[in-house]
Amino acid sequence: MKNAIETNNLTKVYGNFTAVNSLNLKIPNNSIFGMLGPNGAGKTTTIKMLTCLIQPTSGKAVVGGYDVEKNPDEVRNLLGMVPQQVSLYKDLTVMENSQMCADYYGIPSDERDARIEDLMELVDIKYAKNKRVGQLSGGQKQKASLVASLVHRPDILFLDEPTIGLDPTTKRTLWDLIRDLNDEGHTIILCSHDMHEVDMLCDNVGIINTGNLVAYDTPQGLKDSLLEANKKKMTEALGKISDETKISTSTKEDIGNLGLRKMSILLKNQNEEIIEAIKTSDFVKTVEIAHNGRINLRIDSYDDMAVQNVLKDINSFGGVIKSIYTEEPSLEDVFIKATAEVDENARV
Ligand SMILES: Nc1ncnc2c1ncn2[C@@H]1O[C@H](COP(=O)(O)OP(=O)(O)OP(=O)(O)O)[C@@H](O)[C@H]1O
Fold first, then answer.
1. Which atom of ligand 1 lies nearest, measured to the CA of 193?
2. Residue closest by Cα to atom 7 of ligand 1
3. 20 close to 36: Cβ distance less than 8 angstroms
4. Ligand 1 closest atom vs CA 211
5. CA–CA separation, 46 vs 37, rounded Å?
6. 80 CA distance to ligand 1 centroid (A)?
7. pLDDT tens, 105-151?
8. CA distance readout (Å), 131 to 39, 125, 134, 141, 170
9. How far apart are CA 246 and CA 258, in angstroms?
10. Which pTM does this prediction carry?
C-alpha cells in the first residue's frame, strides 16, 4: 500500500450546498500532510468523512487500505484524532480518559498503564495525570488529548489545529513530537492556519478552497510555482524595457529590512526624475536608496499588479532596469494567491 489515504471524487453535499466537491487526494504512507484552507473551506468536513464520522454523499475514500463506507470499523482502528475542540471527559482525570480510550481499542490491561505513562512523559503531562481534565489549562488539555489519541498507536493521526493557543515552548515540544511520530512510521494529517508550522513540518500540502482542492505539492514546490508565475509576470511587464534585465529572488535579509512586500531594483540610468516617479507611484509605500545604488521599495499590496505597475511607471520615465530582486514567496503568499478567487455563490 503506497498511500495512507486515497480519495476519488469525494463529495459532501448539505442540502443544496456542496461543502466538499469531487476531492481527489493521495496522501503517501508515512508522510506529514498539511491541509490548508480558509474558514469554511471544507477541511473539517473532509476529515469527518475520512474518519467515518459522516458519510460521503458520493465518491470514495480509502484509508489505510480500507473503504470508509464498507469497512468503517477497520478504518477507525487505524486512526487517532486530536480534534480542534478537546473532546475528553471533563470530570475524569487525564489518566482515566486515556484508560477509557485504551479500553475502547482493546489494549491489554497489563500493557495499558505503562503505555499511557510513556506517552505522558513524551508530551510532558505526567505531573498532571491525576488532575481532572476540566481543571487543566488549554495547552495541558491539548497534551492530554494527544495521549488519549495515541494510546492505541494509530497508523494515521489527524491533528486539527494542534498547537493553537500553545505557548512557544510547548509548541516546539509538540512539533518535535509530530516529527518523532512520523519517524516512527505514523502518517500525519495536519490541519493548521499556521503557515510556518505547515511549511516546516509537512512533506506535502493541499489547499482547499470552497470545497475544491486548488493546490497540491510540496511546500517548496508550491512556493517555486508562485515564484515562476511572478517572474513571468514581471518579464511580461518589463516587455521592451530591457532584454538583459536580471530577475532574481532573495531572502528577506538580503534585501534589507523594508517591511512587507519588497522589491529591490538597480537602474542603468538612475536620475532624480525617475526616483521621484517611483516615490509618487500609487503602489509604492517606501523608497530607500542603498549605498550601492539599489532602490529598495516596499509595496504595500499583495496585488500582483502592483509590481507590474511600478515597472511600467519606471519605464514611462525612461528608466532602464538592470536587475530586480523580489522577496521569495512564502507559503502564506501561496495560500493568499490560491484562495483569492472565492466564488461567493459557493459560500454559506
Ligand atoms: N452539518 C452541516 N450542515 C450544513 N452545512 C455544513 C455542515 N457542516 C459544515 N457545513 C458547511 O460546510 C462548509 C465547510 O465547513 P468545514 O467545517 O468543513 O470548514 P473548515 O474548512 O473546517 O473551516 P474552519 O477553518 O473554519 O474550521 C461551511 O460553509 C459550513 O458552513
1. 25
2. 14
3. no
4. 14
5. 12
6. 21
7. 889 988 999 999 999 998 889 999 999 999 998 888 888 998 998 89
8. 34, 10, 8, 11, 19
9. 21
10. 0.82
Is beta strand 187-191 parallel, antiparallel or unpaired with respect to 17-28?
unpaired
**Topology (CATH) of 225-332:** Alpha-Beta Plaits (3.30.70)
* Sequence letter at residue 249: T
CA distances, 34 to each of 7, 180, 191, 201 (Å)? 16, 16, 6, 8
**Per-residue pLDDT reduced to its tens digit, 170-198:** 888 889 989 988 998 999 999 999 999 99
Give CA separation, 336 vs 42, 271, 340, in Å.
Answer: 17, 36, 6
| Residue 268 backbone phi and psi in degrees, to 5 | -80, -30
CA of 42 to the centre of ligand 1 (A): 6
Q: How far is CA 163 from CA 171, 177, 324, 335, in A?
A: 6, 12, 38, 19
Cβ–ligand 1 contact at 37 (below 6 Å): yes
Pick the CATH number of 3-217 from 2.60.40.2550, 3.40.50.300, 2.170.120.40, 3.40.50.1980: 3.40.50.300
Return the domain boundaries, the chain.
Answer: 3-217, 225-332
The Cα–Cα gap between 144 and 216 comes to: 32
212, 291, 300 from 206: Cα distances, Å? 10, 43, 28
Q: Which atom of ligand 1 is nearest to the CA of 47?
A: 18
Nearest CA among 3, 52, 49 for reference residue 23: 49
ipTM of the shown complex: 0.98
Mutation to probe ligand 1, out of 16, 20, 23, 43 (largest number of atoms < 8 A from CB): 43
